[in-house]
Design brief:
mainly alpha; about 0% strand
Length: about 350
């Protein structure tokens, strides 16, 4: 029957809503990699720096999520719920807001966009969504005492091998003066930050929408005023106040509204319809689609090691998800927040 929690969607069947949510999620996550590379690559004439794009992302998302979060806080306080907000804006307590905001809202964006300056989108398509399950499994084993089954270990081994195929050659080229290896390190570091956020969300059993509001609020309160002041005083090289307005608005709309707000809602809707296992299998399309887009739209060369790494990473994700399916069915009554790997 239609989802009563979303009256506007009541006219559509649950399958239609689920498929639409999955399509939008995969499209945004794929576009995130391609647009971030096209916008950050100096060779393509990008006018904004990586930190400029992070500023646009945070500002765009804040225009929607901060007022929404403040409204939820007022609703909570009207029901007598106290101590569950930060600055009366974030709908999560302060200590949780700071943790998820630092890793998921601030550090992730700065590292990811910086990586696109040095490494192509093909590398990002393998290393960011590819290394996310690896970091998540290791952090969950350490912080949540999760156990890695032999089948899941096999999937993670395929991911590690794929990452090594992509990153090792760029690391060797570092001796020739190249900086692609630095981009690869930044991509994997960004994936580790998002994995940390995902594990924290699981640890605190956070609602996905409230967690997204919290991380955006933290980034808004800390990054926006600090970077704006540094940009206006000339301490950092920023172009946000000199770039064409259309470029700034585009990044605010796509990176903020699209990558943060819309994909956050559609991902949650996809989970409700397909469940965590099938949803993760659907999002495993992102590495392949973004790699194909990098070749066709950005003209990036597809070397043998990238093809092999892409196949290994995608296979490792699918293998690990299929291996986890029986355990997921046994714990079908347990609510869990899966990792979100897009942008």
């Amino acid at each position: 029957m239609p989802d009563s929690r979303h009256p506007a969607l009541a006219r559509f069947s649950p399958r239609t809503v689920g498929l639409a949510a999955a399509g939008v999620t995969v499209l945004i996550w794929t576009s995130f990699i391609l647009i971030a590379r096209a916008s950050s690559d100096p060779a393509r004439g990008g006018v904004l720096t990586p930190f400029d794009i992070a500023w646009c992302r945070i500002l765009g998302a804040s225009l929607i999520l901060v007022p929404w979060g403040a409204w939820l806080v007022r609703q909570d306080r009207a029901r007598g719920v106290r101590g569950s907000s930060w600055l009366r804006v974030s709908p999560l307590p302060g200590y949780i807001t700071v943790k998820v905001g630092f890793f998921g809202g601030l550090l992730y964006a700065m590292l990811a966009y910086s990586g696109f300056v040095h490494a192509p989108a093909l590398h990002a398509s393998v290393l960011m969504p590819g290394s996310l399950p690896l970091w998540t499994a290791l952090l969950a084993m350490w912080l949540l005492r999760d156990r890695i089954t032999p089948a899941r270990a096999m999937g993670l081994a395929l991911i590690v091998l794929g990452d090594l195929l992509v990153g090792s050659l760029s690391l060797l080229r570092a001796f020739d003066g190249g900086s692609v290896w630095l981009g690869d390190v930044l991509f994997m570091s960004a994936a580790m930050c998002w994995a940390t956020y995902s594990v924290l969300a699981r640890h605190y059993k956070l609602d996905a929408v409230r967690a997204t509001m919290a991380l955006t609020t933290f980034a808004c309160v800390t990054y926006l005023p600090m970077y704006t002041a540094l940009a206006l005083t000339g301490v950092v090289k920023a172009h946000i106040f000199h770039a064409p307005l259309r470029d700034v608005l585009f990044q605010m709309v796509f990176q903020g509204w699209g990558s943060v707000v819309i994909s956050g809602v559609t991902f949650t809707q996809m989970i409700r319809h397909f469940g965590p296992v099938r949803s993760t299998m659907i999002t495993a399309l992102v590495p392949g689609l973004s790699a194909l887009g990098a070749v066709l739209l950005l003209g990036e060369p597809l070397h043998w090691n990238l093809v092999a790494g892409l196949l290994l990473v995608t296979g490792g994700i699918l293998f690990g998800v299929r291996a986890a399916a029986p355990n997921t069915l046994k714990r079908i009554a347990v609510t869990a927040m899966p990792e979100r790997a897009g942008g």
